[in-house]
Amino acid sequence: MKINLSTIKQKFFTKKEKQHSEKYLQTIAFLNKYSLVFHALLSCGLIFVIEWVSRRSFISACTFVSAHTLAYFYNAFIIFASLTLVYLFRRRAFFRLFISAFWLILGIINGCILSNRVTPFGYTDLKCISDLLTMTNTNYFTATQATFVVIGAAIFLGFCVIFFIKGPRFTGKIRRIVVPASVVAVLFVAVPTVTSVAQSTNVVATYFSNIAQGYENYGFVYSFSSSVVDRGMKKPSDYSEAKIDSIEETVNSEKKETSINKDREPNLIVVLLESFCDPDEINFLNVTGDPIPTFHSLEQNYSTGYLTVPVVGAGTSNTEFEVLTGMSLQYFGTGEYPHKTILKEVDRCESIASDLSPLGYGTHVVHNNGGNFYSRANAFQKMGFDTFTSKEMMDIQNYTPNGNWATDDILVGETIKAMDSTPNQSDMVYTITVSSHGDYPTTKLIENPVYATSGAADEGAENAWDYYVHQLHEVDNFMANLIDEVSKRDEDTMIVFFGDHLPTMGLTDDDMKSGDIYKTKYVTWNNFGLEKQDADLYSYQLLAHVTDQLGIHEGTIFNYHQTQMNSEDYYDGFENLQYDLLYGSRYSYHGEDLYPASDLVMGIDDIVIDSMHESIDGSELIIEGSGFTKWSRVYVNDEKVSTTYSSGNCLTIDTSGLKDGDTIVVNQVGSSNTIFRSSNEMTYEKAETTENTEGTESTETSGSENQDSDSDAQ
To answer: What keywords would UniProt list here (predicted)?
Structure first.
């Protein structure tokens, strides 16, 4: 069948003048006359639908309207204000559709996100899209879901184009001064005024101590809008050089001097346990046996406590930020990820690494996930770490039962390797696990589980809990193995294990023995007789507490926590210091170049090409060396080529495009084609065919080395 493009264009993309009935014209005139009333009703309807979709419950949406009526109408007012933009155009129906669809799509996205995690959709999630797209081996989205999204978006955009061309137009008079002035007044006078009144009367809040609860109480439209407008830190009203000097004077008058033995400084290993939760803390969950005996033994014998973290179910980097820097997310905007925002803007960020480096510590990060995830390579550089061994630098072979994540056993050897890389230094190693990360399959993957669960709502939930508890046991084994390996070293060492947030399993405050879904636990271990000192802490206080026990009293923020945690002005001074270091004039440093960013090196081992030779049939170039991983890519003349990983010592590429004199380099490549580390450079020389003694043909390729040292890229 022949497609007539001119017919399609005439039918769908050509505006035809059409004679409308008298009734139609009267209806349009009525709607234009009372359009503001129509917009008000539309806004209320949209808010209800958005809340229904976001909460995934009609009853819950009705409860929001009845329990938070004023917040409901305030959210509707925000949409109503945005709809006033249609009066600037003649194609009012089109822009009315577009604005309504914009808010509805945001609500749908929030509903989809909340089906997989506890933290609602915020503006800074848009900065994590590149991270999400790298997670192609997870169940956050399937190929079918992605296809439906693409098809749906294409259909909607196509409809918008057709509707823009063929849809109705306003034919009345547009007042060129009054209408724009009125729209500006609504958007820039009425909205701020109403918002201020709503906040001052507690209809909505300016700060969400619990983001999920904030969205629940104050509505998605306001909460999301707040995450767009309210970013970064606001300047404290009393911030000044004199204020910072006063805080510093108080801290310096009370702080202790670092008292560790210079010849035997203790190593410090800090381990983030992904989505770790003690099953005993969950009221309804029953487990046969103890899946985490190592954790419980540490809890009984070494310092431990609850750890209040800033996130639930997702947002690992926010807990990480608090732990490593001692700074608090409470002073940032709604749903912010400092790794993705301020740490991309500043030239440095004081942390445990930059505080310990002047004492002679080597500082390292080890993580069996992507180096660019949460923009970590950049964040750790700004924090002053020396090395970062991400999955791209690891020869990972084993994955979790659902195939999503690398198992954590590889982290034991990589942590020890990082410590071995600085034989004449003490070390601070920050190790990040991943194998207990969600999602947790509702289909049965663990047959005849050793640690079976009961008490979950249904069979699917029970399967998910069985899987999660199985992974907790594997994490516990990793903890035991790490302690065992560290125990073999004749070095004083302290290990701190902490959970970054609870798992995405729909837990509520009532489900937890702590009564708070923002509480995880931390446990410690040491081999030099530290006294057990239990304390419930916030995540931003954890390392100040630990270093205080070790006799280390360094750093602007950590010294502040160690000396002022119990003072009446604790949070006022805390907010001022944090603002000073991240957004202010750094009065704390008194003009000195303190705590600079590091020249972060990715990985510990060199990437080395030892030799190259062609396969028997000459179709492949076999590259032999060391340090290769599944993320090794061969570059020919600085162009990436298709690479086959055979082992940690062997890669192969196609020879069809090679010619004499081509340069060969192996790069360790992260997401967005980031080159983390490079090998030495070799020159390809075409092989000659020779006859061997067996009468078969073999090929020999010579490769001359151009560069001995490897280069590091961030």
So the answer is: Cell membrane, Hydrolase, Membrane, Transferase, Transmembrane, Transmembrane helix
